Amino acid sequence: MTSTSTTSGGAPAAARRRRPRPSWNRISFMLVFLILPLAIFVIFVVSPFVQALYYSMTDWTGFSPNMNFVGFANFVKLFQDTTFLKALRNNALLALVVPFVTIVLALAIAIVVTVGGPSRGTIRGIRGAGFYRVISFFPYCVPAIVIGLIWAQVYDPAAGLLNGFLTGIGLSGFENFAWLGEVATAMPASMWVIIWSFIGFYTVLFVAAIKGVPAELLEAARIDGAGRFRTAISITIPMIRDNVQTAYIYLGIAALDAFVYMQALNSGGGPNNSTLTMSQELFTVAFRKGQFGYATAMGVVLAAVTLLFAALVFTVNRLTGGGDDSRRATRTTPAPAAPSAAAGGPIPGARV
Question: What is the pTM assigned to this prediction?
Fold first, then answer.
């Protein structure tokens, strides 16, 4: 005797598992919000990457339809090219220094204007915090090429504002000093221009993130006797850790490129190629030497280095307790007796 499996209401299990026929609304939704964006992504993002990978294995000149497949010969040549290797080292130095210094300065300014006010009463920033936020954000509103050209004039040996100020206060050793013409100072001077241009944006980003930290935590730290510095290190920065990670990645990507700034400050790569970047060398090889296949190989290496940098930042953040751990700590924090409706989690990082 056979029996039919039924549900609690008596309907057969097979009927319960039967899926409804897709309606036109469901199909149109998938077409517009899934298939169409995926097709655009494949056509305009994935396809150019695949095409660039193919071009990097050819001897294409860029101005002729003829190209011969050479395999990995361009990549072998790259890592024997001392000029490219110097540019690679310069990019690595930029990726190490620029994000770190920018984030430290931006965090310091953001903490001062949000929680650096009086030690009594409610937690608030210094007086005139809004004015400082506007002033710090101003450099980000100026195009990168304009910033580079302005600072190139500031660094001018004969008529530059920097040398004029230093000699005016009695430092005669800086008279006609070539900041961008000396190996020892060309790269630090160029780094400062990039850092100066990004501090304002990331200050505003961190201010928004800090304002999302529950005020009860800061008040509790103050009651326990924690000073401003201890509160910033132990509470504020860990609570906005995801924002810091996002900022570090985007700053690293900007530093690995840095074409506009370096081209405006030192279009020739600086003394002894001390400020030459991979993007500058790529531009020179492609448009001045007519070696597009070789230049595309440089672009592929630059893309790989960028992906490696992002993966390294994610890995370090995970190994040092970031990611889910910080969110789990937020969820397990005891709720106050009268929670504020304005208290929320950290604001996600914004892309440049």
Answer: 0.78
